[in-house]
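Example 5.3 — Glycogen [starch] synthase
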Amino acid sequence: MPLSRSLSMTSLSGVLPAWEEAELPVEDLLLFEVAWEVTNKVGGIYTVIQTKAKITVDEWGENYYMMGPYFEHNFKTQVEACEPPNPAIRKAMDALIHNGCQVHFGRWLIEGSPFVILFDIGSAAWNLDRWKGDLWETCRIGLPYHDREANDSLILGSLIAWFFKELTDQLGDKLNVIGHFHEWQAGPGVILSRSRKIPMATVFTTHATLLGRYLCAGNADFYNNLDKFDIDKEAGERQIYHRYCLERAAVHCAHVFTTVSQITAVEASHMLHRKPDVVTPNGLNVKKFSAMHEFQNLHSTSKARIQEFVRGHFYGHLDFNLEKTLFFFIAGRYEFSNKGADIFLESLSRLNYLLRVHRNDMTVVVFFIMPAKTNNFNVESLKGQAVRKQLWDTAHTVKEKFGKKLYDALLKGQIPDMNSILDRDDFTIMKRAIYATQRHSLPPVTTHNMLDDSTDPILSNVRRIGLFNSRNDRVKIIFHPEFLSSTSPLLPMDYEDFVRGCNLGVFPSYYEPWGYTPGECTVMGIPSVTTNLSGFGCFMEEHVSDPAAYGVYIVDRRFRSPEESCKQLTQFMFSFCQQSLRQRIIQRNRTERLSDLLDWKYLGRFYIHARHLALNRAFPDKFKIDPMAPLKTEGFRYPRPYSVPPSPSASIHSTPHHSDVEDDDDDEPYDEDEEAERDRLNIKAPFVLGIVPEGKNKQPEESGN
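Solution (predicted structure tokens):
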């Protein structure tokens, strides 16, 4: 059956035009997606497969299944057990169960409710030595007994390959099977399926290379030395050679190899010695509001809750105006250098200096949301929130008393004597409340008691740059070494609400294969800072003509020195502090308009193309693609916003001014609906991802895929 090389695409509800192209004959196919993080949250891959589930279920219906390890707690809390709709799948499961291996089936209770097949690794562990022997005989890869994660991945891969063998034997030529495997933990499944010549199409996706993550964590000059590393030696020194071999073997065994970004494609070409066939960017489920002002209202509501926390945290030192305070944040795994916390702290020190020198009355409160080892909340932080609540209760009590006396006087037709409306007891209560706010120490930098306070990288650098939340500092730092939760007694907010309340997310990562954090900011209409070493930053550079105008600031960490990158980040943040309130509102509107680009309704098409390609390579007689036809993995290019003048100086004030005061001469023309419509009409025609426009030189190893 011939396949058009063009991609199927559901209609996009937002700015982007729609495609209407031939779809895969899904009724004749079964799609299985394999990942260690199916129903098992560990890292970012969980977000990928969870958010992508709905559009995949919409396309494939009951012919789509996810596969992963079984964990009893996760199954009981996230999965509704049921029977497989396909009898061939039931028989394949029974074949494993009758041989002493437990397999569980159900619907994952997330958006889309996909079917999941979960394999109990513990029940099959007695086969480990035999399966290690099979792996050695197959590809000469040996696994040490002490690496439990690698051993578990082999058990999972062996069970999955066994399942696919039973399934394809049951199906015969009735249905064709596609297996999409994520990351090295799913790698043994690819290796064993291909070595046993199971008739199925395979796709393998790496979200970050194993060795790349280890090298960057060790502060290696990674991107300038990609072609110089002795890969085998580096993997051996870090005692991950066997894992690296599994990853590399899976990459070369799969019919189609994909990565999540162009920057990871360059990395994989060197680390794994195979150029990716398709780049499959990560998306999100974007929920559009019916009215533009709705997400702005959510920002105001969440910001007010953050302000309440700040009032308590800085009690006794609250000598700055919260209406002239901006909230910046960085969040993610605690990888100090990889996530760019090092360059961020240095830039904050310089930003503090600039704000003081220019006598800017803007204050910046910066949150570090990175989980670290702690033994409980900081007593001083809890006390601050208690003092704030006590002050609120006192003010409320006095207000009620004041209001009642005022009401009674007005009923009698009298203007009350303001000097006598409050008695001596009221003044005593208020004075005691004021004295309770006195503080002889500075507000704490961290909200928790750190176990490794003296060696903690963030706290050590805070001591070096001297940002201790003193009265003279225009930049204040709050390190919250736990993920946010609405049940926290300190900062009771979910992460999404917290992000909505902030003004700027700062993620100057050195190693970030994709980067969900700036993407989440964009979808919520919050400007962010990213880098050209993150997949998200590269994606935005490729799709948006002027990312900064849309509130996505991209720091050059690839072709500039660390010092130059630090200066650029400092300038981005300082320019942001100079914007007026009106300019920030306009920028948030523009940022939110980019959310269509990150919607799985758009980005899912790259996965569709990968499946087309895998079927063509596995079953060339049944699924044909014209090799001469141009690739249709295209992108769109957003124009500069219509109302932004050619020179950026016209839209960013050259001198600092108050954010809550609109200048009389601020006549920047702006109509949100008119600008959005003009931008929609000006979106440039699709281009092939990876193609460098004329006049630009390609960097080495940056060829399109």
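Remark. Residues 224 and 558 are 8 Å apart (CA to CA).
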